[in-house]
């Protein structure tokens, strides 16, 4: 009589579920990046980096598809190879954080402590962005 762990799910099943979750998340972030390419309020580059990370772990086919995309591929390759963000993308992100975040804090957040917390978070985000290496050329 064989004593197997009957209560433990098959490893293959859990890997399939996580693969599908990563694929779905990757496509969600590609969609958000596409919206960010045409809407001034959404950044494109961070969404693409999350999508690329999801695809790299779940589907080499979709990862290569994303890298070969003429619009999105150069941004991802620049980050992957040099850990740099194009100057234009960095400036756009900082301006949008200041505009959208500042407007939100000033007009829509009612509590002073919450305003302070959000402002501190946004300031930290801008400092982090400023400290990232910048590429002079615009791959996008």
The value of Rg in angstroms is 20 Å
Low-pLDDT segments = none
Would you list the SSEs in sequence order as H and E?
Answer: HHHHEHHE
Strand order of the largest sheet: 1-2
Q: What is the approximate shape?
A: globular
Overall structural domain count? 2
By secondary-structure content and strand pairing, the structural class works out as mainly alpha
| Main β-sheet description | 2 strands, parallel
* Quantity of strands, as a count: 2
Number of helices: 6
Residues in helix, %:
over 70%
Draw up the topology in text.
Layout: H1 11-38, H2 45-58, H3 60-68, H4 73-82, E1 85-86, H5 87-108, H6 112-131, E2 134-135
Description:
This protein has 140 residues and is mainly α. The protein folds into two domains: 9-83; 84-140. The protein has six helices and two strands; from the N terminus they run H-H-H-H-E-H-H-E. A two-stranded parallel ribbon has the order 1-2. The longest helix has 28 residues, at 11-38.
TL;DR of this structure?
With 140 residues, the protein is an all-alpha fold. 74% of the residues lie in helices and 3% in strands.
